[in-house]
Design goal:
heterodimer, A: alpha/beta, Rossmann fold, Rna Polymerase Sigma Factor, Chain: A, two-stranded antiparallel sheet, 12 helices, B: alpha/beta
Chain lengths: 427, 212
Amino acid sequence: MKAAVNARIQLDAEKGKGKGKFVLVDKLPPEGFSERLNSAGAVHVINPNSNRLTLFKDKPLTLDGGAELSPVDVAFETYGTLNAEASNAVLICHALTGDQYVASAHPITGKPGWWGRLVGPGKLIDTDKYFVVCSNVLGSCLGTTGPASVNPETNKSWGIDFPVITIRDMVKVQAALIKELNIDRLLMVIGGSMGGMQVLEWLTTYPERLHSAVVIASAARHTAQNIAFHEVGRQAVMADPNWSTGAYYEHDEKPAKGLSVARMTAHITYLSEDALTKKFGRNLQERDTVTFGFDADFQVESYLRHQGSTFVDRFDANSYLYITRAMDYLDIPGRYNGRLADAFTGATHVRCCVISFTSDWLYPTIENKRIVHALNAAGVPVSFAEIQSAHGHDAFLLEAPEMDAMLTGFLDSAAKSYAPLPKGAKS
Amino acid sequence: MTDYSKPENTLRPDLKLIADLIESDSRVLDVGCADGSLLSFLVHHKNIDGRGIEISQGGVNACVAKGLFAIQGDADNDLSEYPDGSFDYVILSRTLQAVHRPKNVLLELLRIGKKAIVTIPNFGQWRVRLSLMTRGRMPVTRTLKKTWYNTDNIHFCTILDLFDLMHQEGIKVREFVPHSKAGKRLQMGPARANLFADQGLFLIEPGETSAK
């Protein structure tokens, strides 16, 4: 089925408006992939079984930090078929440690897609109707250029010589990808958490290329508390002697301990006290009494250790540093003298939807409502709901019937109201 | 034009009274829009550009399913971010008595909207007065169905009370439509309406002094 999708993309690229420069990198078979992953030092980017395009070959990507990057590889997955008018394209933006496998098995863990619940044939984002694109973000490690990629100037992995990136830089790469796929205007761009931040940057930077936008459990700026938690994570990575100032790619040992602790801390912020209490309470892990030692006596400890240790198998420590930094640097109102509404003045034609969750203390309702108020103040049509959930921030990835109902109605009316741009009105 | 999946052809009679006052092609904010029936009706029959604010999540979902835009929120907290004069009409239907700061809300309606339409249940209606006088207990009537401890109504007022407040704030009442619970217009002035009308509808505008 994937081959069919690729063939379709290739075909569109060939007949498509004289843009023949589409390069699809040959895919590695999953077996080959795990071999390469296991041979330490041979391959640093966790090279996925994904479509991959090389962009910014002739004209470099100018980053918000001032540096230039060329070329930029983008790994992405697609589901469904782009229709002749290119009017059914949905871009899904992934979160901090997410990836392009929104509805297909992860190449390392084998786990089903992270939003497979919502994306697929006959599902809420119905791939029989819509052409879904999800790309690995800039700075990540599943095929898109990031600190683990090879610096063409040195022929070695970038490590911390990789330029610091922003959420808007990630979006610039996505916009280039969407253009390359011959999509002028997305039916919808949608994302939760850091994915929602990307949606916001789409609204500030490329509103003319959007018909509708959905922001879930997100924020337009990182608060001191958000930055504080990220800093703990980064310091944990950097305190691991195996981090070697980011130059661990040539070594046998990776900063797994540090990255694992970073993940454990972050994971707590994705849940809620209520969720932790319900799931674990003070339950002991396979023992009847505490051991008066530092083993994982409590189930919650065991759970967190497991979360940490499995994370390091699928994620690059430097990517974690870069992406958390990008999130910390997000301050959209700051770019507009504190008036977030001014960021959205170009988006008055974009149908927007914002969703928050009652128990999310990482990006709580108040931060989401700031976005809603700003969109309202800018005259952007927006719907908003705060969904009851005990799952904390992670609620957007889990069962949430009320969110599903909202999204179903929103996507249906977005699709019905999508009208192709008049000829010659292309941006 | 936007395609809305479920056009509303019939409307609750008291909402129809509101709809009748709204000019075509205007921008309308319905504060407390419930399932979006009124907005949807106005979109289809008067081609308005509508937005809603609704406290219940189910109501918001119903609005979104109709292709409308609604935010979950309330009159006390979610009006301040709208720019001045961003709507032609702001509607507050049977909600003023349930807000924390009614005067503030009233002024906000007229800051955001060029006009506002406010309807209230009339606590001066004879059934309410009779009930309190004869039973000596807080009234539970056909318009006020809940008991004192579980009602959402926290700022009771009569039609004359609201006239007084509007006078005090320099608000102009362009239209006053007293009506029954069933939405039947009553042909009478404020004083009689204060005794006989279940509800009062006010189409208001900022006066010169209250214009900011």
